Every structure is written in structure tokens, then in C-alpha cells.
Amino acid sequence: MPVEPRLGASVALIVEGSPNRVLWALRTDDAPSLEGFHVTPGGLLDALDGRLPNDGGEHVEARVACLRELFEETGILLAHGADDLDEALEGELRDALLDGDDDAVQRFEAAGLRLRTAELEPIGRWITPEFAHHRYDTRFFVMRLPDAPTPSVDIREVELAEWIDVPSALARFARGELLVTPPLLGLLRGLEDGPLDVAAQRAAYGASAEPAQRWEVVPGIQMLPFRTPTLPPATHTNSYLVGTGEALLVEPATPFADERERMLRWLLEAKQGGIEPVAMFLTHHHVDHVGAARDLYDQLGLPLWAHAETVARLPELTFARVLDHDERVTLAGPTPMTLRFVHTPGHAPGHLCVLDEASGALVAGDMVASIGTILVEPRDGDMTLYLRSLAAMKALRPTVLLPAHGMPIRDADGLLDHYVAHRLAREAKVRDALRDHGGPAQPMDLVPVAYADAPKLVWPLAVLSLEAHLIKLEEDGAAERTAAGWVFV
Ligand SMILES: [Zn+2]
């Protein structure tokens, strides 16, 4: 079951000029959602939003929430009466709101403040796609200001709030330096030359409550998650459409008819924008990555590409091209894109990642995930190779990781280091458990010790992972498989 979205609201402050400027905030890498994303200030609606004094407007609680969150996160108070406000009192009000104090409403009234909700212009609504752990149904507003008030950041979830001129923001996005949500990207593009066309924004982003189909996570790379039979807690596999003219569909993953329909609509919408898939590509052979391949071949005639080890494991599919490590493909289009395929075995023997050489974004398949963990098991997987492949990915110095499950990951270096450290820590626990066991051990004998920190629910998978660790320990000369079981060396 997908998580029900919670109501949210967000506001973009704009100072029009040449160039236009926007206030944006960077969420910390450990924020509960949209970690590492640049966003416009905002958050969840809360109980105070029905009561804080304001000057009205449609969806008024969302409007109040915008201006309350803006004040909490950046210290910018957009209220009638704010100009005469004593600085110390303003600080107290901000703290009261941050703490969720019930008397914040009375304090606002006593200070003669009224939030300027009527000046907010609605530009759309965006619902976080179903795959996410934290989902929001967010109303977006803009407010045009004559000049730019200075933000002072509250560093709970936001590490930076600043005014950025729109061309600089788009240039940084084009270099793959940052992640932005679809509404913010749409807004930045709408402000690229000239004043904002509010009606056009509304048309592009969410007059409807449907989650946006088009999410360009990196220039030239669109992402859309589809429901698949995958390992919990993940429920979806991300498909990526890479290219600005000719395009490669990475992970034709979903086997479900309704989701395949949605995929076809997505591809059709892309085609109307001049983006047309010329081939499909599988990062590896697992069932939650290949479900739509045959249907899309039948319906669209799209040829299928993969590594030889993947091809060998999917005899029921017809492949048009076998890709090797370090092979490059250039896709024609307004901005031609050169993709480099990188062999990364360890989770699956034929696993290939795809590097967009221009932005440095790495489509990472199942090598990493921002939902759930990556299973490395003895049949398809190999722990020694997996660790080696993580190091090879790090050596590519990716700017962002685009996993098959979960949100894009900005802190690529940090995540890859964390993955390696996590596996080595587990390996040490397995080695200690084997040493302390005394006699020959079966993998299941060691799980209660080496995975004592994991819920029993995952032990059936843990036993596979543990065996993969034992095989690596044997390769390292620290363990040995005997007829009676595994022994410590
Ligand atoms: Zn997999």
C-alpha cells in the first residue's frame, strides 16, 4: 500500500528584474524527506494554520502554512504590521512557532500582525510519487516582492537559504551540481527570460492532482517510478528516459498492465516534446527490472540492450545489442548525450551502470538504493566484486546517483563510503561470529549473532547475505568451507 500523502505548502519568493531572482533553500542530507534537494521554503500544514491572523485567499490554510514555514525557516516575516515589529519580539514569535506553542496565535494577534496570504499566487500542486516513504500533496505559491529580504536560516532541516539569480541556478542544474523538485525546476525555467507567466506555470504543474509525469532529475534524464514485484520496503522500480532527442529507456521494469499503460503515456508525452526512445536497456536481469521489456518490444519495436551476462540469464527475451564495459553510446538531439556503460558486478553478474558524461550523473541500478538495502547473495552476487564495483563507481566521481529504488542521491561520495563501511562492519561481525562459534558452522547458525541488530523478519535474506560474506572471507583466507560446515582460519 502506498503511503497516504500529507498536506503541504510551499512558497517561492521572487524579485523580478534582469535577471530574476528566487529564494531557495537546501535541505540537509539527513532531512526526513527530499534530503539534499534545493527547494522553495515550505512544509506540512499544522493546527495553527487555521488560526493565525491572515488576509485570506483560496486554500487559506495552505497559504498560512507557506508564510509560517517561510518565517520559521528563513526568518522572513511577510505580514502586515511586521515593519513596526520589535526585533526581539520577532525572534520570540519565531521561536514560539518553531516550538509549536499554542499561544503563538495570541501573540500574533497582540502584536497586530496579519499574514499577507492574499498576495500569494497559486502556481500548482505536486504530489510526491507513490514510491516515497514520505509523501506530500503540496500546493505551490509565488509571491513577488519589490526587493529581497535577507534570510537567516534555522538549521534544523535546512542548511542554507539564499537568493539565487535564475540563470545561475539553471547553470548549476545543467552541470549536475544540484537536485531540484519538478515544480521548482518548472518555476526556474519559467523565470529564465522575462516576468513569470503564472497561467503557464499552472498549466504545466498540477492544475490536476495527478503526480507530475515529467520529472527531469538531471538535464536530459527523466525519472518515473513504476510499481514492480520488488523486495520490500521498496514497492517501485524507477525507469529513466535518457536523452534530449534520441533517448534510451533504462529499466522497462513493470510487469503490471496498468503501470505499463502509464509508461506508454509517459513515452507519448515525451515524444510530443521531441524525445523519442530508440532502445531499451536493462541494468541487470532481475525480475523487478525487466517486466515491460517484451511488451514494449511488441508494441513499439524498441530494441533491447544489456550486458552479455544479463543476456545469458534471460533466454526468453530477444536482445539487439550486447554492451561491454566502457562502451560509449552517443544519443543525438538538441543536446547530444554521451553515455558510458560501466560493468559493476556484485549484485548481479551482468550489472551495468550508465554514466552521463556531461553531467556526471550515474544511473546506478541496484548497486545502491535510497529505499531498502541491496541484497548481495551467493547465487547472483559476489561480495568481493560488489565492494570492488562500489570503489569503481566512486572513482567515476559521480555528481549524483540515480538508483532503481528510491530518490536520487546527491551525496554520492558519502553514500558509497557508507555502503563500503557498512559491509565491512558486517563482515567483521560474521568473522567474529564464526570464530566464537567453536566448531564448523552453517550460515544459519551465525545469523542470530552476526545480525543480532536486524529484525528476525529479514533473517531469511540475511542468511544469504551472510553466506556471501563467508565466501569473501574464504577468498581473503579468513574462513574455509569444509564438509561439516564453515570454519574459522
Ligand atoms: Zn536486482
Give the helix/strand class. Answer: alpha+beta
Specify the overall morphology: globular
Helix residue percentage: 25-40%
Poorly predicted segments? 207-212
Spell out which ligands are present.
zinc ion
Find the CATH topology of the largest domain: Nucleoside Triphosphate Pyrophosphohydrolase
Describe what this molecule looks like in 3D.
The protein has 14 helices and 24 strands. The radius of gyration is 25 Å and the shape is globular. By secondary structure, it is α+β, with helices and mostly antiparallel strands. Helix 11 (about 385-395) runs antiparallel to helix 12 and helix 12 (about 410-435) crosses helix 13 (about 445-450). It starts with 5 loop residues before the first strand and ends with a strand. It has 3 domains: about 5-205, Nucleoside Triphosphate Pyrophosphohydrolase (Alpha-Beta Complex); about 215-410, 4-Layer Sandwich (Metallo-beta-lactamase, Chain A); about 425-489. Strands 1, 2, 3, 4, 7, 8, 9 and 10 form an 8-stranded mixed beta sheet that branches. Strands 11-12-13-14-15-16-17 form a 7-stranded mixed beta sheet. Strands 18-19-20-21-22 form a 5-stranded mixed beta sheet, with no helix packed on it. The longest helix has 26 residues, at about 410-435. Zinc ion binds near residues 286, 348 and 366.
